[in-house]
Specification:
28% of the residues lie in helices and 31% in strands. It has four helices and four strands, in the order ααββαβαβ. Strands 2-1-4-3 form a four-stranded antiparallel β-sheet, with helices on one face.
């Protein structure tokens, strides 16, 4: 499969996965919102630093996979679902941590199965309960 077809199929799969998830208000009725502050660093050929905040409301789906800052990354695994589910189970309000992308740096390296992306994502999750 060529790169374009692979990336298109991956986008379709991710969209379908997201649509199959529950709404936050259905799965977690006691949640007011979930705020995730992200600080990315990617030290590839182009050094990239970027920050952003994502706020999930009860009307959104419980899909917490974060897109890698490296636009060429293939098969990113930056997913905060386990952390958020654990926080809710333990009624925690704030969690800070770091994840390193284990996707591949680009399609060529994905096909060769070498050179992981290694972008760094520092995160702070804050959950507000009703």
């Amino acid at each position: 499969m060529d790169e374009y077809k692979y990336r298109e199929q991956h986008r379709i799969n991710e969209y379908n996965l997201k649509q199959s998830r529950f709404f936050i208000k259905e799965r977690y009725p006691n949640i007011e919102n979930i705020s995730i502050r992200l600080d990315f660093t990617y030290l590839g050929i182009d050094k990239i630093k970027k920050s952003r905040t994502i706020i999930y409301t009860p009307e959104q789906r419980d899909y917490f996979k974060i897109e890698c800052i490296n636009s060429e990354c293939v098969n990113t695994d930056l997913d905060l679902s386990n952390e958020i589910n654990s926080m809710i189970s333990n009624k925690e309000n704030i969690l800070k941590g770091e994840k390193i992308c284990n996707g591949y740096q680009d399609y060529e390296r994905f096909m060769a199965k070498n050179h992981h992306c290694l972008a760094t994502m520092c995160f702070e999750i804050e959950i507000q309960y009703k």
